[in-house]
Amino acid sequence: MASTLALLILCTAMFPNSSQAAVRAYMGTWDLDGDGSNEMAYNLGQHLEIQSLSGPSFTYKIGASWGLNQVTDTDGDGVTDLVFLAVDGGKQGASCIIKHIT
């Protein structure tokens, strides 16, 4: 399943620091803004990049201690959201929802 693969990629990717560039790991392709066209999601370590197939990209800071848990419509508006859960001990169980609206 794509979500499981994305979680594995997100949890095992290298995280950037000041002396190294971010690793750009493909997570999946979903319609994340409800326009009928898919966007590609990439793990950049502590950031999430959403790349529209028509060109523009958007970056969201998520931190290094989060893992993709679900790709679902969390609020019933017909738009797919990305749900991340904390994977470190200090924030275990906390969630972060990325609602990508352009």
Provide the residue-averaged pLDDT. Answer: 76
So what's the overall shape?
globular
The whole-angstrom Rg is: 13 Å
The count of DSSP E runs of length 2 or more, i.e. the number of strands, is 7
Low-confidence stretches: 1-20
* Strand coverage percent: 35-45%
Q: How are helices and strands ordered from N to C?
A: HEEEEEEE
Roughly how much helix do the residues carry, as a percent range?
10-25%
Q: Strand order of the main beta sheet, please?
A: 1-2-3-4
Largest sheet: 4 strands, antiparallel
The class by helix and strand makeup works out as mainly beta
Distance between the termini: 27 Å
Keywords:
3-stranded antiparallel beta sheet; 102 residues; disordered N terminus; 4-stranded antiparallel beta sheet; mainly beta; globular; 1 helix
Characterization of the model:
The chain has 102 residues and is mainly beta. It has one domain (2-14, 23-98). Helix content is 11%, strand content 38%. It has one helix at 2-12, and strands at residues 25-30, 39-43, 47-52, 57-61, 66-72, 81-86, 95-98. The strands form 2 sheets. Strands 1-2-3-4 form a 4-stranded antiparallel beta sheet. It has a 3-stranded antiparallel beta sheet with strand order 5-6-7. The chain starts with a helix and ends with a strand.
Summarize the entry for a quick read.
By secondary structure, the protein is mainly beta. Helix content is about 10%, strand content about 40%.
